[in-house]
Amino acid sequence: MVPVNFYIILSAILFTIGAMGVLVRRNPLIIFMSIELMLNSANLAMVAFSSAIKSFSGQIFVFFVIAVAAAEVGVGLALIVQIFKSRHSINVDEMNNLKG
Predict the structure, then answer these.
(1) How far apart are CA 66 and CA 72, in angstroms?
(2) Domain at 8, CATH number
(3) Can you tell me the distance from the alpha carbon of 54 to that of 72, in angstroms, rounded to the nearest whole number?
(4) Contact, 37 vs 21, CB < 8 A?
(5) Is the pTM of this model over 0.90?
(6) CA dist 29 to 4, 22, 49, 54, 82, Å?
(7) What sign results for the dihedral spanned by CA atoms 55, 4, 30, 94?
(8) Residue 48: domain span
(9) Which of 10, 20, 27, 45 is the most exposed place for a label (fewest CB within 10 A)?
């Protein structure tokens, strides 16, 4: 059996990679995937702690979080496609021109 510490360390590493992807990259698709990586690392930590205390409530909660994340992916990709259609670019630095 793998100790919980290994899962938490893996979750922290994945979260750090996702945070660096959000902070460093300028492509909205890469930023979007990095946010999903951060969400999945939090889910991994939740499942690890849930299995450590022998409870299924954390795993059920993660199931609902994944369902909401799937809806988020659909809405986010639709927004990115619409921005690309209207501006012919998906540069993050130019997104502030969408105000007002």
Answers:
(1) 10
(2) 1.10.287.3510
(3) 30
(4) yes
(5) no
(6) 32, 10, 31, 37, 13
(7) positive
(8) 4-98
(9) 20
